[in-house]
Design the sequence.
């Protein structure tokens, strides 16, 4: 197992988590703003749905970040146990 690739993979995972969250939340907000512009009377209902969707995306992001942190911690433990050349 090449440790360098594992570390690079963890970094890519963190970056993809951030990009995915940004794209998802921006899509929710843009659609909500568009919906409020078309139906100003439904602003409260659209806002609640938008916040619920954003909270669910953030929940998934935090879960993925936790898994990535656990992977990083276990990788550090493996690196510490490797014999020094």
Sequence:
């Amino acid at each position: 197992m090449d440790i360098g690739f594992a570390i690079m993979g963890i970094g890519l995972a963190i970056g993809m988590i951030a990009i995915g969250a940004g794209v998802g939340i921006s899509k929710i907000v843009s659609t909500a703003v568009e919906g409020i512009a078309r139906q100003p009377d439904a602003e409260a209902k659209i806002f609640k749905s938008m916040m619920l969707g954003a909270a669910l995306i953030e929940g998934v992001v935090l879960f993925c970040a936790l898994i990535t942190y656990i992977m990083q911690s276990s990788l550090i433990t493996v690196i510490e146990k490797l014999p020094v050349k």
